[in-house]
Amino acid sequence: MHKTIVHKQDIDMRSHIDQSLLKAMATPAPFRLLLQTAIEWLWIIALIIAAVWCSNIAVSLVCMLLIATRQHALLALMHEYSHYQLSRKHAWLNDLIGDIFTALPFFITVHGFRRNHMLHHRHGATDQDHNWLASLKKDRYQFPKTRKQIFIEILKHCLGRYTMDDLKGYTVDAGMSVNLPRAVRINATIFTIIIAAAIIYFKLWLIVLLYWVVPLATFLAAILYLRDMGEHFGMPAPGIYNARTVVAGWIERIFICPHGVNFHTEHHICPAVPFFRLKQLHDVLLKNSYYRDNAVITHGYLSGLIDEVSAVPGDAVFV
Fold it and tell me: Domain ranges in the chain?
């Protein structure tokens, strides 16, 4: 389907925020980031232990789903490392910690993600945003769709229908695992050898397959698809910085949008603000008339978002 691209020039919203407040909100909180990273891994380990101990199919499926939500949480934190939220002074340490605990377990690197992600920030949802263009070529990212079609696509992701295609898209096509600096390649190789040796020595192949690879290939794929829709696709209006903010309840924050990823417009306005302050930034921006009049603010992923992507005019993509 031919799409009419409607471009919109946004004002610099940062200039409309008290600068001392903005500076305070944009201050990194490295210990908070490290603590949250540790908490996510503790949840994953606890869920794996629970699944193995119970040895019950229903319990295992529930644990797989919950593990996928924590995998998504780790990827959200990897995004924080890509913005140097651990350390802006010691970039090598920031990336090393980010790689070991949030990127390499997903076959990507912080450096590779950042290289791709910065283009997205500078040219979001335009013909210079490679991720956006790649997604537009896929039928599953063409909107509007009926509600039935959308839920069928979510189910296909749950069944692993698009896993290999998406994995290749991130790792190779988007360059998150290729053409890396020598130091990053060395670190990735050492990490792979250590993890492989530990899996072989402790005979963890089945556990890793069932409780890391399977959640990643199924439930996580579906969560990422729903989150992707919420960020830039099926927009009912141009929005600010071509992005959408989704106001979500606590259940959706656990299962779909951990660590403030639902405040995507706010992140584009000020990428330096750490994840746990994006809600505060959102509340500050609501006091600005331009933001209130132009931001696309959707209520709920499985309610408001589904309504929007199933109703957006089929002959236009607002960017």
Answer: 4-314
